Amino acid sequence: MKTVRLTVIFLITSFFLVGSVLAQGAPVKVGFIGAMTGAAAVMGQRCNEGFLMGWNEFNEKGGAKGRKVEVITDDDEGQAGKGVNAANKQIFKDEILCGFATTNTPVTMAVVPSFQKYGVSHMTQVFGPTVTKMGSKYVFRISVSIDAYAETIYEWAVKNMGLKTVAIFSDKGGFGKDVGDAWEKVAPQYGVKVVTHEKCNLEDKDFTGQLLQIKKLNPQGVVMALGWELTMGLIVKNMKKLGMNNQVFAGAMSVEKYVEYGGEAAEGSIIGLPLVDYDRPKQVAEFASRFRAKYGRDPVLHNVWGYDAANILGTAMGKVAPNITRETVYQGITSVSGVQLVQGTYDFKASQDGIRRSKVAKIQGAKAVLIQE
User: Taking a C-beta distance cutoff of 8 angstroms, is the pair 177, 136 a contact?
Assistant: First the structure.
């Protein structure tokens, strides 16, 4: 009789324990794939810092109705094949529900089909417009796309300096082609003529041949459509040695790195940036303060992309919790509209490109100075 009573008590107790676990929910697995080592490691590492910070804050606030998030990070080394392997691992072995993939254009383009096939939503920071036009509804851009940067910069330049001619300088990689082609395609919309489109390898150190061709044609501006601040810095240094005073334009970049590599030659460059400083508005300043407290240094744009990506995914989960699945997360993302985060106001209800407007800044005194909101 005692055995029966003990068994009943055990079963009742077990029922309530299991019920409590189910009510709380198992952790939600979220992936991050990016270049944590290799030539593009700075992008991956900094984006990952922001991503982890966003999820730490999300978990500290209770998660999605009690369900916390576990982040699984994989290094693709900036290589497409390793990115695909990481994507398949996270989709099948880790069973992630959504994630960030990736921090490089060629790698992102390689992994899009895997995430599409298995219905896994993923954020990416890459600028090239092609990524969100590959036929997958599951890829979402957290950065401003390069065509939006081009529109903003051309509009400013036509209005403020009467821009009529530019040369485009891009790299021969997937990023350079996507971004260079976007600058070239947008130019006629603003009455700007592209007089030449020069190309190089990212590993090149001398650009005299391409720059002499540009110098001969003497366009008002030179557009930097390259995937590496080091290469851009070396190009503007080369321009200065050749006595070229053409106005330099570029989309978003790490200003700190560009100035480090370009030195005085980087001065006066006009760049598109979603954020120019971290002192305003209040929401941005508060983020910067928390970031400094956590990492001991100022944030950069890649940190912001990771942080905002985590917040978009967290917002999506909050909308659909407690029923958090791959499909409901997708539904949650595509219902995000008018959400104000660090970079600006996101609207994924209207487009897979969640943010479409850039600010304009000028490099002055080795820093980016706002010249147009």
Answer: no
∠ CA 112-118-120, rounded to 5°: 65
199-255 residue pLDDT tens = 999 899 999 999 999 999 999 999 999 978 999 999 999 999 999 999 999 988 888
Name the CA dihedral angle for 159, 161, 167, 171, rounded to a multiple of 10 degrees: -70
pTM over 0.90: no
Q: Which fold has domain 23-144+279-347?
A: Rossmann fold (3.40.50)
Residues 289-347 have pLDDT tens digits of: 999 999 999 998 899 999 999 999 999 999 999 999 999 999 999 999 999 999 999 99
Per-residue buried b or exposed e for 309-320, using 16+ beta carbons within 10 Å of the residue's own CB: bbbbbbbbbbbb
Q: Which CATH number fits domain 147-273: 3.30.465.10, 2.40.50.140, 3.40.50.2300, 3.30.460.80?
A: 3.40.50.2300
